[in-house]
Amino acid sequence: MSEPIFFAPEASLSLGDVAQIAGVPLPEGAPALTLRAVASLEEAGPSDLAYMDNPLYVEALRLTRAGACLISSRFAAAVPPGTYPLVVPAPYRAYAAVLAHLHPSALRPRSPFGASGVTPGSFVHPTARLEPEVVVDPAAVVGPGVEIGRGTVIGAGAVIGAGSRIGRDCSVGPGASVMYALLGNRVIVHPGARIGQDGFGFAFVAGRHQKVPQVGRVIIQDDVEIGAGTTIDRGATRDTIIGEGTKIDNLVQIAHNVVIGRHCIIVAQTGISGSARLDDYVVLGGQVGVVGHVRIGEGAQIAASSNVNADVPPGVRWGGTPAKPVREWFRELHTLKRLASRPVNAKEGGDGDAA
Question: How much is the average pLDDT of 159-171?
Fold first, then answer.
């Protein structure tokens, strides 16, 4: 059985090309080196480009066989003789830019079926409006009144509910569903994501939980990316909104009426309760819990596994349960650790024998 290469490089780059992409001048006397692929420090060979900007990988850098390495100045001395060090201010950003040149097809998911146009076996309602170059894979369902913009891909088994709008150059992955929603341009919805289902709303009446109709929408602005298995509930009476450029990891729950600003980062297994608000440029680490109706200010960062149960000011770094300023949280942890390490004796309530 042959071993497939899913993202083969679409070009090769000279060292000068790499320097230009990284936005730095190529020093005089640099070798005439052709780089055909990118690879990790451990796996790179003489025609590969690697990068490094983390002290944990200094030893791997010393042993690498890469033809060239994007490197920050502080680690340049550790580059071995056979590898050309291309010093850049931000190695990871430069590496990402080079990857985009070598593998443009990896920037946005394409049709898993390799299709073009509306395929046999898909179900497109006659009142749906599709611009040219839309791809609809087999078993996908596009409901009545749906509008889909040029260049968008609807993956196999995806469902686009009645009246939904999807902009241009979007991707809706296999098995995803988009209901009661308006999506902007260049939105990526990864496989299995659920957008626009009921918000979780019930009123307790006469000993029973009575369903509260959820009649809002989901609004997703341009350049948003939504991870696999993530769920975004539609609003109860007003819209759930995801701001431009926000990136949402896999397995995130966003409840009804939540408003998320522009260019936020929300990492996996985070849960955001109803009517919470995140201002622009907020970062939530993995497994953060946000209670309902709180506001997290612009540029605030919340550490992984924290619980936010009160408003967070702009520009701060908080962590812990309940979340608080990081320095205060660290002092508490240090104090608890110090107390726990103290020896316990009978006078302090230990388990010593009675006299």
Answer: 98
This prediction's pTM:
0.92
At residue 93, the 3 state secondary structure works out as: helix
Say if 285 falls within a structural domain.
Answer: yes
Q: How many C-beta neighbours within 10 Å does residue 142 have?
A: 28
Query: What's the domain range around 31?
Result: 13-106
Same-domain status, 90 and 151: no
Helix 91-102 × helix 15-22 angle, to 10°: 120
Could you tell me if 97 and 163 lie in one domain?
no
> Do residue 91 and residue 127 come from a single domain?
no
Contacts of 254 (CB under 8 A, 6+ apart): 230, 231, 232, 233, 240, 242, 248, 260, 266, 272
Residues 175 and 86 in one domain: no
Concatenated DSSP letters of 149-173: -TT-EE-TT-EE-TT-EE-TT-EE-
pLDDT in tens, 81-100: 999 999 999 999 999 999 99
Structure tokens of 189? 């919805």
Nearest to 157 by CA among 143, 137, 128, 171: 137
Give how many domains the chain has, as a whole number.
Answer: 2
pLDDT at 33 over 50: yes
Average pLDDT over residues 321-325: 97
Which residues have a catalytic role annotated? 256
Q: Which of helix, strand or coil describes residue 335?
A: helix
CATH of the domain at 282: 2.160.10.10
Residues 219 and 74 in one domain: no
The mean of the pLDDT values for the chain is 95
CA nearest to 193, candidates 174, 215, 221 = 174
